[in-house]
Amino acid sequence: MTAYVIAHLQDAAPHPDIAEYIERLPGTLAPYGGRYLVHAKQHEVKEGSWPGGVVMLGFPGMDEARAWWDSAEYREIAPLRSRHIDGDIILVERVPEDYTPAAAVRAIREAAAVE
């Protein structure tokens, strides 16, 4: 099942390390079937606040996303970003094509009834 890496990265001043990171990142993605889906595009905030930028990568599955994150190739370049850009990064699996939120609704109703 498709998995995504979503990064909410805070604005950072330009730095040569960041340029190197961006140049080298695609080579770390390829062995795991990863690709860019969103890269530093303008975004609209509809609720709350979301300073900074968004990067979203797609992988064939969660195993590939985890393997990429843990790979020696990525771990080698990650400090080029993390030394200069603060942010939050998550890995998340896509829901199946036939997904409905019915089970989530049931769990919420049951939990609410207990209170």
From TrEMBL:
Signal peptide: none annotated. Transmembrane segments: none annotated. Pfam families: DUF1330. Residues 2-94 form the DUF1330 domain. InterPro entries: Dimeric_a/b-barrel, DUF1330. This is Uncharacterized protein (DUF1330 family). It comes from Nocardia bhagyanarayanae.
